[in-house]
Please model this.
Amino acid sequence: MSDDGVVFLAVNKINLRLGGPAGTGIMNTGMMFSKACSRIGLHVFDYPEYPSLIRGGHNTYLVRAEDEPLHSHIRMVDVLIAFDEPTLSLHADELKEDSLVVYDDATVKPARTRLRQGIRCPLPLQRLVTEAGGTEVMANTVALAAVLGILDYDFAVFETIIRDQFKGKPEVAELNVKVARHGYDYAQQHYEHLSHYRLSKTAAPKRMVLSGNEAIALGAVKAGMKFYAAYPMTPSSSILHNLAAWQERHGIVVKHAEDEISVINMAVGAGYAGVRAMCGTSGGGFALMNEAIALAGITETPLVIVEVQRPGPATGMPTWTEQGDLQYVLHAGHGEFPRFVLAPGDVEECFWLTVEAFNIAERYQTPVIILSDKYLGESHRTMEFPDLSQVRIDRGKLLTQTPAGYLRYQVTDDGISPRALPGTPDGFSLSNSYEHDEFGWVTEEPESRKRMVEKRTRKGETYKREMPQPGLIGAPDASLTIVSWGSNKGPILGAMKFLQGEGIVVNYLHLTHLSPFPAERVAELLTQAKRTLLIENNGTGQLGQLIRAETGIELKERFLRYDGRPHSPEEIHDKIRAMLRGA
Amino acid sequence: MVTKEELASPVKPTWCPGCGDFGIWLSLKSALVQLGLKHEEFVIVYGIGCSGNMCNFIRGYGFEALHGRPIPVAEAIKMVNPRLKVIVVAGDGDTYGEGLNHFVTACRGNHDVTLIVHDNRVYGLTTGQASPTSGKGYKSKSTPAGTIETPVKPLALALAVDAGWVARGFSADPQQLTSLMVAAMQHPGFSVLDVLQNCATFNKVNDVTWFKEHAYKANHDIHDRMAALKVALDEEHLATGVIYADKREPYDGELGTRSVVDEELSSIDITETMDEFV
Model:
C-alpha cells in the first residue's frame, strides 16, 4: 500500500461506492454524486442496493461515471466511502491498490475489518460537521464533499446541487453548503498528494440522470396519461411518487387505492371513460390484478400496466432484482385474448416503449404490460433529452359521436371496433365482461361466441403485421450471438465493449417486443447465428422457453443468474471468453 | 332527456317470476326519467350476479364489470369525467363479500357515486348459497348446518366508515324506492342505497311477507348519526327510507372538478419536469 506513489492518472473515469447502515442517507448522497458527475458532463450509471427495511442492515450505492456512455455497473471500485466497518469488510475484495478508502477514523477502525487493499483516507467527519455548526445527519454531505475535494471537483458546481436538493429550505441549504465547504477544504489540504483520480468539467450537453421508473413516469406523462393508480410496492413505488408529485403541473389524476385489485379496476374504469390510464406494481400486486387483465381483454379497454419485477415467489426478496415473471406475465389473465408485453432494457427504452404502449393500448383497445425490473427501475443513468418531435399520439378508432346503430364490438377485418366513450352525445353502448354480441348484449350463442373469439384474436394478428422487427446489435458476422431481454442489456453491452477491446466480436439480439412475438424474424436471425448464448436474470431461461415455443429453436447454451443480483459485465465477459476459447 | 321507451332494451329480463329485481329495475328506470337525464349524462356500472344481469335490460352507457369490482371502476370514471352521473348496480355478494374493501374505501372517500345494492341475503345466480347478509344459522347448499358468521349490517358498516348518505329501500315498494334513487343520485357524494329484496327461488326464509313484517318507515332524525346508527344496527325492525344524510365535500370536489377526459394530448410540455432530472 502506498500513500504517495501515483501509479496512474484517471481523469473523468471513476467507480465510487458508498456503504453504511440503512437509514443514514446513503441513497441521497449517492444520487448527489451521480448528479455531480452528470453536471460536469460525464455519463453516469448508478446502482443502489438495500435490504427490505428502514433502519439497520447494509445499504450501498454504486456510482460509475465516465466521459463516454455507460450501460451498467462494474465491480472494482476506485473510491469506497465507508460509514461503518461492515462496509470495509463486505467490499474489501472490490478494491485495487490505488483505490481510495474514505471513513471517519473516530468510529471506523480498519484493523477490525478485512480491509487489505487501497489507500486509506481517514477523515474526522463528525468533528468537521460539528466545527461547521452542522447536525449529525450531515456526515454524508461532509464525506461526499471531502471526496470531491480529493478528486479536485469544482466546488461551485457541488454547491448548486446542494441548493437544488434543499430547494425551498434556504437555511438548511446554507448550512449544508457551509458544512460541505469545510469538508472539501479539509480534504484538499490533507490529501493534496492524492491526485490520481480527478473529475473535471467537460464540454458536454446538459443531460438528465434518471431511473427506469422515472423514465416510465416521464414517458407516460408525455404520452398523455391522465390517470395513474397504484398501491405501494417495492420496487415500483417511485413511479407513484413521481407522478403524484407532478399531478398538479400535468393535470393528471393519481390514486393510491386500497389494494391492487382496486388499482387495476380503477385503471379499467378510467380507460373505459376515455383517458389514457396506467397502473404500476411488482409481481405480487400484479398477481392480484390478473382477473381484471382479462376484464380489459374482453371489454376491449385500453390500459397500460407496469410490472417492475423483484425476486419471488410471494414476498420473495423485495428490494433485489430478477426476471422471474416473464412467463407469468405472458399468460396473465384467464381465457384467450392477445397479450401485449413490452420489455425495455434501459432508460431510453423505458421512455419510448411507454409512449408506444399507450398507442398500442388505444389502437388495439387492449391491456399492454410493460415489464421492467428492480435493476432497471431503480438504477439511474444519464439520458440525453429525447427528441420529443418523434412522439406520436395514436388514439386509434376513437369516435367523437356515437352513430345511430352503434356497435361497440362491431366485427371488422382487423379485429378492431370503433370506440365510443360514455358521455358521447347521441347514443349509448354496453361494454360487457360477459361474452357479448356486436352491440355488447350478453350472448352464449355458439356462432356469435366464435366470431368474438376470432375478432379478439385478429387484433394480435393485425399487430404482428404492423409491429417493429428486432435487429442485431453489433457486427452481423460474429462468432457468437447473445440472446437476451430487459435490463441485461446494460451488462451485455458492457461485456461486449470489454470483448471488443480484446478483438473478440460478438453480436446481440435484444428483444423488447415479447408478445405478440416477432417469431419469423427471430427464427431467421437465430438460424443465421454461428453460435448462441441465452442470458437471463432468472433460473429457468424463460425467454428461451418463449423462443422455443414460438420458433421451435432451442437455445442450449445459457448463462442464468438468479441470486437476486443483476448480471455483471465482467462475468458475462468471462463466460463468453471461456466459451470461445473452448470452441 | 331519456324516456322509458329509450331506456328499454331489446333483451328480455331473465329473472325468475316474482323476483325482487324487477321492482329495482323499474324503479331505476323511473328515477332516471324523473331526473331528466340524457343518455350522455349517466353511466351505470354493474356487478356480477342476478342484479348485474340488469346491464342487458337497460339501454344506456353501461359497463358490466367483474364480480365484486364495480365500485373502483365507477370511482375512476367519476374521477376523470366528473360531468357523468355514475351509478353502481350490484348485489350483496358483490358489495359486502367479494368487494367489501372497495365498499369501505368508497364510503371513506365519499366518491360522488350512487351505489344500489340488491340485498336478497342469498347468492341467486350460483343457485342459492349463503350471502354476507344471510341471517346467522342460514342453511344453504354451502352451509348445510347453518352459517356460523353473523350477518354484515350494511347500513351500520357504511355509517361506521363515514358514508354521508345512507338509505334502505324495498323492492316491493317501488314508489319509495324510486324517490330514494332520485335523492341518492342528487346527493353530492357517495350514496349507499341498500335494497331489501326477495329471491323467489332460493331464499325461503326472507320472502316478501317476511320483509313486510319486519320493515317500517324510518322516523328518526336523519341528521343525527348516533340515532341513525342505532336504527341501522337493529336487525329485527328494518327501517326503510333515508337513514342518514350529511353534507361533506365529495372526492372529486376535493380533487378539483377537472375533467381530464377533455384534455388535449398532442402537445404536452414536459420541459420543466425533465429539468428536475438534470
User: Anything to note?
Assistant: Residues 4-275 of chain B form a domain with the Rossmann fold fold (CATH 3.40.50.970). The mean pLDDT of chain B is 96. The two ends of chain B are 54 Å apart (CA to CA).
